[in-house]
Amino acid sequence: MNTLKFITAGNVDDGKSTLIGRLLYDSNSISTDHLGVLASTNEIGQETIDLALITDGLRAEREQGITIDVAYKYFATERRKFIIADAPGHQQYTRNMVTAASVSDLIIILIDARKGITEQTKRHAAVASLMGIKKVIVAINKMDLIGYDVAVYEEIKRGFEGLNKQFNFSELIYIPISALNGDNIVSLSSNTHWYKGKPLLEVLETVEVDTQLENNARFQVQWVIRPQTKGYLDYRGYAGAVLSGDFNLGDHVRILPSNISAQIIGIEKNLQSVDKAVAGENVVLHFDADIDISRGDTIFLDIEDAPITGNQLNSWISWLDNQALQLGKTYILQHRFHSVRVKIKSINKKWDVNTLEFLPAQELQLNDIAQISLQTNQPLHYDAFATNSKTGNAILIDETSYDTVGALMFL
Amino acid sequence: MKESNYLETLEQEAIYILRETAAQFEKPALLFSGGKDSIVLVHLALKAFRPGKFPFPLVHIDTGHNFPEALAFRDKLVSEIGEELIVGHVTDSIKKYNLKETQGRFPSRNALQAYTLLDTIESHGFDACIGGARRDEEKARAKERIFSLRDDFGQWDPKLQRPELWDIYNGRMQQGHNTRVFPISNWTELDIWNYIKANNIELPGLYFAHERECIEYNDKLIALSSFTPATLGDNVIKTQVRYRTVGDMTCTAAVASSAVTIDDIIEDIKQSRISERGQTRLDDLLSEAAMEDRKKKGYF
To answer: Where's the Phosphoadenosine phosphosulphate reductase domain (chain B) (predicted)?
Structure first.
C-alpha cells in the first residue's frame, strides 16, 4: 500500500466539495459525529446530508461562504492511502491552488457538464502544469443534469484535448460523473453504459505515482549529527534528504560548493546501517575523508551529470503576496536547506493563465505567473524544474516580513 | 508494494520535519502530553537525531488533572531516553493570574492550559514548539500548516498563514512570534496505531482494556477519581474500558472495550464510525467551533 496525494480543482459551483464529500462518505472515512455537526446546520426536514459541508471547516468560512485556505482530507481503501489537498475555486485564492498543487501527484479537474470548459478550467490546468503535475483526471460532473448525454461528454473531452497541446501532462483520464448521485464514483453507473473506463475511485487506486528514482542522484545536507559524547567522539554523520536517484555504499560523490570528492563509507537509515538510500528517504551519510560539509551542501554522484551551478538564472515565478514584486529589491531565496540573497533583475514575460497568452509586464501582483531573471549573491546548485522537481524549485521570502512571497520553478 | 510502504512515507516526512525544525530554530521544544501521538513523536525524534542528543527539551504542560498512569509513563520514558523534561504547571498559572476555573460537572482546564503554555514558551525563550496534532482530528486542524505561525499572544489566524510550498519550510519570523510545528500532520489515528504496532512502541496501559469504576454520564463513561467523584443519583459501574485518547481525567471519557492487544485496537478503530475526539472529549462537544476558538487563543 502506498500514498497518492491529489488536488481537486473546480469552480465554486462545479460540485468539488460534493465530490470530496462523496469520496469520504463512500469510503467510510467521515465520522458520524462530524456528520452530526453537518446535520445540525441543515434545514429541518431535509433528509440527505449536505456532502459539501464535509469539507467546509471553519466558522469564519461558513459565515463568509468561502473556503479560505487549503484543507487536507484523508481517506484510505484497501489499496491506497489518499491525501486530498482541497484548494478553493475563487480567483483571489489562486495562491492556495499553487500551494495545494505543489504537494500533489495528481489533479482532478472538475467541469460542470452544462457549462463546459471555462476560463477557470484553463487556469486550473495551467497552474497544475506549471507546478509539475503530470497526471490529470478530468471529471465531467453533473451528468445527471444533462441526461447523461454522451455527446456533451465527447465535446468537453475534445475541447480539453485541444487545450492539452499547451501543457505537458503525461496522463489524461476523462470520467463522466455525478458527484451528487454517485455515478461512476465508486462503481460504474448504469446511466452511462457508453463509458468504458474505470470509476473514479478505481482510477485513484491504480494510477501510478511518479517517483524520482530514475533521475540523477541528488542529496542535500539538512543537519549534521556530531554527538561528541563518549563512544561517539569521532562520529560525524550528515543527515539529509535523497531528493532523486539513489546512493550506494562505496559510491564516489562530489560535494558542492567545495567541489571536493569523497567516498560513501556508511549509510544509516532509522539508526540501522544500510547499503543503499533511494529518493524519498532521509538518511545519514558518512564519508572517507574529514571534509567540511555544512547544511545546504549538495551531493551528487561523480559519474553522473553535475547540477547546474550559477548565480544568474531564469525561472518561472508564481507571485503569492499582496504586495507587488519589486525589481531590484533584495529577497531571500530558500533552495530547500540552502538560503541565499537574491534580486529580481527583470520580468521577461507574464503568463495570462485565463487566456494562456504571454504578455510583456512591468510588475507582478498577487496571483500573477511569469518568467523572470534573477541574480543571487552566492551560486546555487540546481537542476531545471522540468528535469528535477525536487532540486529545481525554491521559495522567495521577504527580508523584512519573512512572508513567503513567491514560488520559483527554475528554467 | 508492501503494507509498510505508506507508513515509511509518513515516517520519513516526520523525520525530515523534525530535522528541519532543529536546523531552522534557535530554541525549539517538543510538547509532550503523554498521549500516544506525542509518544510516537519522541520515537520519531530518536530516529531523527540519534546517536546525538535531542536538539530540544520535552515540555509537558501539566494541568494537574492528569492520569497518574500517564505521568508515571512520562517519567519512565524520559529517564530511559535520557533527555531533558520541563514541566509547566497549570496550577501555578491559576494562582499567578487568579484564573477562574471552568464550572460544571466535568470541568476542563483546556482554556487555562494556554496561559501556562505561553508562559513556559516565554520564560524559556522557545521559538518553536513541536506538537503531535494531526489534521484528521478536527476541522480546525485540517487547515493547519506544518509550520504554523503564532503572534505575540500565541494566536492563530487562518488568514495569516503563509503559503507552504512543496516540502520547503519557512521558519523565519518576527521577534516575539512563535512557530508551532506538526510533523505528524498527515497521519490518521489508524496510521498512528499501525506505526505503534510496526515499531513495537510501548504505551501507557490506559490505552488497553482494563477494569475500571466509571460513572455513566449521558452516553459517556467517566472514570471515578478524586477529580470526578460520584454524586447522588450517579450510576457507577465496574466495567472493561480503554482510553482512545489520553487527556485530563476530568474531561476524557473511556470507551467500553475488550481490546487488549494492538491488533484488537486497530480492529476497534476500523469498525468505529465516531472520531476519537468526538467519542472521548467532553470539551470538544461544547460547541461546533470549540477547537477553532481554543486555537485562536493559543491552544496547541
So the answer is: 28-253
